[in-house]
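S1.2 Input.
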Amino acid sequence: MGFEIPEILKISQQMEDKLIGKKIIDITLTEHSKSIIKQGMSNLDKRQNDILNMPITKIFPKGKWIFLEFQNNNILMFGEIIGKFSYIEKEESLPLKYHISFQFEDGSALTFQSSLYAFLTVATRDEKSQHRYAGNIGPSPNESNFSLGYFLQVLSNNEKKPIKSALNIQDQISGLGNAYINDILFESGIHPKRKVSDLSQVERDNIFDSIIKIITSAIQLGGSADEFDLYGNSGKYSRIMDKNTSLCRKCGEKVIKENILGSSSYFCSKCQKL
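S1.3 Output.
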């Protein structure tokens, strides 16, 4: 599934609670990390010295990204994450398998195990602002500037796109991905292939309301039950439409799975008509 805004907020807060003021004294790249580096999603093989032995001064989330700022103004960027972070206390054992570990001066560590891919990149502030993804992140549904008016303008700018695509344009609406979009569209009764131009004003308003409802609930519940926090605890939000959903909870029809725009969509053909 990958981390979306509810999981990012939870893990970012945990990192802030544990890592502020700490110094990374060593970074271990295992054999498993080679795939991330080869894909150009990590430069930790070349840029470790930019962040080693520097106190972490600030940690903040934005969209699908978590940013760790250091005293020298360099930034460690975690983004588009499909995998698992683990915080290891002093004298606890590291996981049997991981891609990257960050060791701190107090003996604690942070590991990351990729399930598919993730950005783990060191950047200066200028490099961050110019990054293709991290440098251009739009408002998230939990932010005050994500208003109904803003959302309607986003839809107006993307009239020719399917609604599933419009909800996943990270430089316009950040933090939503396939998992929560499935639930949002089911909640609002909209088929993922519906063109934005075909949506009525009422349907547009309903989608906005569903975004706020679903994401607020998921944040309050600590993210999805399919994802884990720094301590191995899963969230308590149960997804409405996923691979484990066989029947529509509204009408009892069989839930349809279809690859739409490169990822699996789950929907009810009766409640979400095309």
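S1.4 Remarks. The helical segments are 5-19, 34-38, 125-130, 148-157, 163-166, 178-188, 201-220.
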